[in-house]
Amino acid sequence: MTEHAAITVEGLCHSYGSKPVLNELSFTLEKGKVYGILGANGAGKTTLINLLLGRLKPTAGKINILNMQAGSVQAKAKVGAMLQVGSLPGSLTVEEQLTLFASYHSAPLTIAKALRLCDLNQHRDKAFNQLSGGLKQRLLFAIAIIGNPEIVFLDEPSLAMDVSARKQMWQTIGALKAQGKTVLLTTHYMEEAEALSDELFILSKGHIVAQGSAAELSQSMQVSEVSFRYNDSLESIQKQLNKWRWQLDEGIAKTRCSAPNELLKAAFNAGFECQQLSVKPSSLEQTFMTLNKQEQAA
Ligand SMILES: Nc1ncnc2c1ncn2[C@@H]1O[C@H](COP(=O)(O)OP(=O)(O)OP(=O)(O)O)[C@@H](O)[C@H]1O
């Protein structure tokens, strides 16, 4: 493990009984970076986080957290987590919960700072039971960072958060990164994955099927999204440029192709004016969907 590594995972496997869920995963997460794990429902994202936290024991393989064993008392002291099942004592207020969790750590954030970072100041006196789903998420996020951890695991953190709370959380994650902390998050929101992550992992059928920045993943698909204004019918463009499958959306014709030059040549030869022409690499969402489809078919 190098001094820059926050987490190293080698040959990690996990099965629930006879059902394999993760198969031979190996990767390194560097300090001071934000990592996103993408995967369809049931791909094994939560299982991976539980293994990294030491809440589950691997069937095989090694996990090293800041040169310590996952789940050891020393490793736990350096890690904060926001999990999907986050139940708290119902009658304690936001402030009381944070005070309680802060007391478990040797050098926690102040309660005032945690309240501010998670935009919870005006809700500090509300009991957990009285909080809306989004506010409960904000409190769980505050609890994940109250111990001032070196590594933060966030399992679908923005679920149920409104737009402003989500943006506030994004800013806080950016601030954690700027302080050299490592963040690993799972999300189903591609926009969130793209905005936050230095590097993404796509999990499918127990394997990492792609890894890299959002731009790298999109470019690796070698598929472009081409669109231009088209004032006729879908049937008409489909007939004239029949090598590609077209969509027509409010006067904009769109398609995906691996050779945009060939398409544009065909369009110009056919006399298309191609106003508002746009040629972009495949979006992260499209890349994710294509990779998943390929893996399911394999
Ligand atoms: N305690 C368990 N016992 C048996 N099988 C489990 C258990 N927990 C999860 N699984 C199974 O393991 C697989 C991976 O589940 P996991 O929750 O890790 O997926 P996920 O990628 O986090 O899914 P989601 O996006 O829906 O949260 C699923 O098929 C799930 O049914």
Layout of strands and helices, then pairs:
Layout: E1 5-16, E2 19-30, E3 34-39, H1 45-53, E4 60-65, E5 68-69, H2 73-76, E6 79-82, H3 94-102, H4 111-117, H5 133-145, E7 151-155, H6 163-178, E8 182-186, H7 190-196, E9 199-204, E10 207-212, H8 214-220, E11 224-229, H9 234-240, E12 247-249, E13 252-257, H10 260-269, E14 275-281, H11 284-297
Parallel strand pairs: 3-8, 3-9, 6-7, 7-8
Antiparallel strand pairs: 1-2, 1-4, 4-5, 9-10, 11-13, 11-14, 12-13
Bound molecules: adenosine-5'-triphosphate.
Adenosine-5'-triphosphate is lined by residues 16, 21, 39, 41-47.
Structural domains: how many: 2
CATH topology of the largest domain: Rossmann fold
Largest sheet: 6 strands, mixed
Associated small molecules: adenosine-5'-triphosphate
- Uncertain runs with pLDDT below 50, 5 residues or more? none
The coarse silhouette is globular
Q: What is the strand arrangement across the widest sheet?
A: 6-7-8-3-9-10
Q: What CATH architecture of the largest domain would you give?
A: 3-Layer(aba) Sandwich
Q: State the distance separating the first and last CA atoms.
A: 34 Å
pLDDT averaged residue by residue: 92
Total helices: the number is 11
Q: CATH superfamily membership of the largest domain, which one?
A: P-loop containing nucleotide triphosphate hydrolases
Report the C-alpha radius of gyration, rounded.
23 Å
Topology pattern, helix = H, strand = E: EEEHEEHEHHHEHEHEEHEHEEHEH
Strand content: 25-35%
Binned, the helix content reads 25-40%
